[in-house]
Structure formats: structure tokens, C-alpha cells
Amino acid sequence: MYKPTLDYAQQLDKEDKLAHLRAQFHIPKDKDGNDWLYFTGNSLGLQPKQTQQYIQQELDDWAKYGVEGHFEARNPWMPYHEFLTNSMAKIVGAKPLEVVVMNTLTTNLHLLMVSFYQPTKTKYKIVIESDAFPSDRYAVQSQLKFHGFDAEDGLIEWKPREREELLRIEDLEKIVDEQGDEIALLLIGGVNYYTGQYLDIKRIAEIGHAKNCIVGIDLAHGAGNISPELHDSGVDFAAWCTYKYLNSGPGSLAGLFVHEKHAHNKELPRFAGWWNHNKETRFNMRQPFDVIPGAEGWQLSNPPILSMAAIRASLDMFEEVGMEALRAKSEKLTGYFEYLINQIDTDRIKIITPSNPKERGCQLSIQVKNADKSLHKKLTENNIITDWREPDVIRCAPVPMYNSFEDVYRMVETLKTLL
Ligand SMILES: *Cc1c(COP(=O)(O)O)cnc(C)c1O
């Protein structure tokens, strides 16, 4: 099995078939030119070196063609979002018809709820995880209020049990069993941002659908990290951002998934704009609204090409490597990280992320007893970039695209001395 030595970590890097990818990213450095040990790809992924050239191409074509770039650019802007669809669909395990890149994550969640949160007087409640990402919580609370319900009464939290950190699927089952007649929607984070727990979304879909609830998944921490097989899971909808594990730049556009079973339902309530109107007649400008089938039918506006160029640069890398190879390395890399942490001789440390690789992505959330934010500060002073969550958790994501086994080794060595 693993060994806790630098030699061994370097050996793993030598054997790693994806090790060459690191050189294709800009790795931030300290003022002396040493690489940071960057473990916050779960917050903002690093920049692929080829991103600049992809964006430059669109700047050049804008300079050269002006408005004609919509048709004349090397990558015509009119169908530009279509260039992203196939690779994005593969990453989340969907059919191309089911996926589109547009807007930002919270905006997409709202647009999806416009269609899929259709409460009645008696069936109106929404289930979220008790430690859902704040934006998701605010979004569902505001949807409840928008439909005239009390946000507190309408929100059901799926909580970890007393003295536990992780969610148990049986507890969700119980909630839906007992209160399903009042529940309209389950909106669950596929990979929890805080604990790193990867939930069985297929099971969640079955639980929700058994009581006629719509099931939506937030994949912000899942896309590019785990393989969620969205189509086969049967969930109704999903959304995710592209600036975390998908390395597409700060605030970049988001992904949206609507299951094929809803693709041709023109009766679904939805907001409209010219970009979800039939492409054939869009520019006649005077036709009555005729919605595009599939996920594209949720677009509103013509999209920002410069941001899409950055997404395209990154997705081309994912296309080349494939999620399978990335996942294989990820399990090994995070497994090594976990092993090294468990070697530290202290009772102050506890990993709250599940130990089963099938129930997590690359992130480990490490709880350090009696620690405060000064630990995070000291890590940063040592070039180790992690994410601190009050009161005492370090979130740390070794990303298989650009982190090495040596990164992980050096991180744990420093953590040891700081403790
Ligand atoms: C990162 C993240 C967000 C951020 O939402 P934006 O609309 O992109 O600002 C929302 N939800 C979850 C679960 C996240 O992890």
C-alpha cells in the first residue's frame, strides 16, 4: 500500500499518466518563484495555459469582423454555445439534448424552479440539506415567498443525526415517506460543499419520484469532480458552475440539465427570450414564441462569447483526458492524502468526508480540534492554499488535473509541524 515518504510520493508522480497536465496550467507562485500548493480548485480552478489563446481568437475575430463575426468568425458566435454541449454532456453523463451552458448557477436554479417548482396549496414544501450552500438556501426561500408561502414553514431540512456530520439516505427517505404529500421539490447538492459527501442521486430521484416530488440537483461541487450520470439517475433537473472543478475562470457561465423526459413538454411554465425561440425563425422577429426542445429551451439571451471561449479551452482538456482517467487518478490522490493524514500522530484531527471513495470526490474536509483561523493563516504563509470554514474545518481539494502526489505529501508534512 501507500508509504509516507517523499520518495514514494515522487514515485507515484512518475507513474502518473496524467502528470503532464500540470504543466498545461498556470500555477500561482510566491514572490520567490516557488509554486503554491493549491488546494482550492473546489472554489476557483486554475487557469489552463491555452485559455488565453481561445479568448484571443474571439477578440481577434471581433476586431476583424464586428457584427459579421456571428457568422464569419472562425468559431461563429451564433451557434457558439453548441460547441460546448457535447463535452459538457459527457462530463455529467447526459445526452446533448439535455445540456446547455448559460447564465450563472443561481440564476439557472431560479429559471429551473420557474418551470419545475409548481406548488399547490397543499403540496408546496421544498427539501434541502441542512448545510446547503447559502445561495441555494436563499434561492429556495425566495421561491417559497414568491409563491406566497412562509419560507420557514415551507422549508424542510435534511439533517445529519446528532453527533454526526454526514447525511444518511434513510433519513431523507423517512422525511419523504412521512411528509411527501406536502413536498413539491427536493433540491439537493450532489456533492456537499462542506463535508465533500457525494450522495446517491439516483436513489434521491427514486425517493422523490415515489411521492411525486420533482428532484433537482446542484452539481457545483460535482461537475468535473465525480461522474454523476445525470441521465441514468433520472433526476428532473440539475445546474452547476464552471469556475470550480471546470477551470473556466472567475464567475464564468453555468451548466444546466433538464432530463429528456421533459425535453418536448411545451406546456411547462417558463420564462422566455429570443434565445429559447426556434433557431430557424429567430431573426424573423415577428413570429409567436416557439420554444426550442431540450435544455436550450431555457436560454434567454445571446451568451457572452469571451466567457464561453474560456469554457471551451477547459472542456477541450476534459475531452482529451476523459472523466474516467481523471476519476481513477483522483481516487488514488485523495486516497494518498487521507492515508497521510491518518498517519499523523494526534487526536486533534478528524476527516469528516466519507472514507469510501464512492461517496466522495477529491475534497477532504479536515476537522482540527481547538484550531482557529490562525492555522489557516499559517498554512497560507507556507504557500498552502486551502479553504477555512468556521469553526474548525479545513477544506482541501487535490485536483487530479494539476495537483501532484508530492503536493499532497508536502501539505501534510507542513500541517504536521504546525500542529
Ligand atoms: C459555488 C456554489 C454556488 C455559487 O453560486 P453562483 O450563482 O455561481 O454564484 C451555489 N451553490 C453551490 C452549491 C455552490 O457550491
Question: What is the structure about, briefly put?
Answer:
Helices cover 37% and strands 13% of the residues. The chain has 419 residues and is an alpha/beta fold.
CATH topology of the largest domain: Aspartate Aminotransferase, domain 2
Q: Which value, in Å, is the CA radius of gyration?
A: 22 Å
- What small ligands are held by the chains? pyridoxal-5'-phosphate
Span between termini: 26 Å
In CATH, the architecture of the largest domain is 3-Layer(aba) Sandwich
Question: Can you give a write-up of this model?
Answer:
With 419 residues, the protein is α/β, with parallel strands linked by helices. It folds into two domains: 6-46 and 322-418, Aspartate Aminotransferase, domain 1; 81-302, Type I PLP-dependent aspartate aminotransferase-like (Major domain) (Aspartate Aminotransferase, domain 2), CATH 3.40.640.10. 37% of the residues lie in helices and 13% in strands. The chain has 14 helices and 13 strands. It has helices spanning 6-15, 51-65, 69-72, 82-92, 105-116, 134-146, 151-154, 169-179, 201-210, 230-233, 305-321, 323-343, 373-381, 405-418, and strands at 37-38, 99-102, 125-129, 155-158, 183-189, 214-218, 237-241, 254-258, 349-351, 364-368, 384-385, 387-389, 393-396. Strands 2-8-7-6-5-3-4 form a seven-stranded mixed β-sheet, sandwiched between helices. The longest helix is centred in the C-terminal third of the chain and has 21 residues, at 323-343. The protein is globular. 43% of the residues are buried. The model has no long low-confidence stretch (mean pLDDT 97). Bound molecules: pyridoxal-5'-phosphate. The site of pyridoxal-5'-phosphate (PLP) has 12 residues, from helix 5 and helix 6. Pyridoxal-5'-phosphate binds at residues 104-106, 133, 135-136, 189, 193, 218, 220-221, 241.
